[in-house]
Amino acid sequence: MPALRAKSEKLTPYLRYLLERSPNFGKKFDIITPRQLEAHGCQLSIVVHENAKKVQDALCAAGATCDYREPNVIRAAPTPLYNTFHECWRFARIFESCLTAQ
User: Fold this and answer.
1) Which of 16, 28, 60, 68 pairs as cysteine with 56 (C-beta 3.0–4.6 A)?
2) What's phi and psi for 4, nearest 5 deg?
3) E strand map for the chain
């Protein structure tokens, strides 16, 4: 378990870092999950300001696994047991393309 938590403490901040580098961060979306590691698990809650459900549908169609919470939150959970850093990078790329397509 300590190894999984250690990976989680790197994986989730890495996904946050990738998403925050987007030119759309703060404009088309924000992250509402607290930044402090001890305040959250492995998921990030992403508020999409417009067409959130369409973005979610596009993510799923592109093969990204995440869930949707009304009215406009997409939750991505880079789970340390199953996910890799490359998959976080891939999710960020897919997310960006889904945002710009809307």
Assistant:
1) 68
2) -65, -40
3) 29-31, 44-48, 67-69, 73-76
The three-class DSSP label of residue 46 is strand
Q: Name the residue among 48, 35, 88 with its Cα closest to residue 65.
A: 88
Q: Which two tokens stand for residue 10?
A: 């790197």
CATH number where 68 lies: 3.90.1150.10
Residue 69 tokens read as 């919470």
What is the pLDDT at residue 40? Answer: 83
List per-block mean pLDDT (blocks of 10 residues) for the chain, which spans 102 residues: 91 97 97 90 95 97 95 96 96 96 80
Q: Given this model, what pLDDT does residue 60 score?
A: 96
Instruction: Find the domain containing 93 and state its range.
Output: 2-101
Considering its fold, how many domains does the chain have in total?
1
According to the model, what pLDDT value does residue 41 have?
84
Q: What angle do CA 81, 71, 32 make, to 5 degrees?
A: 50
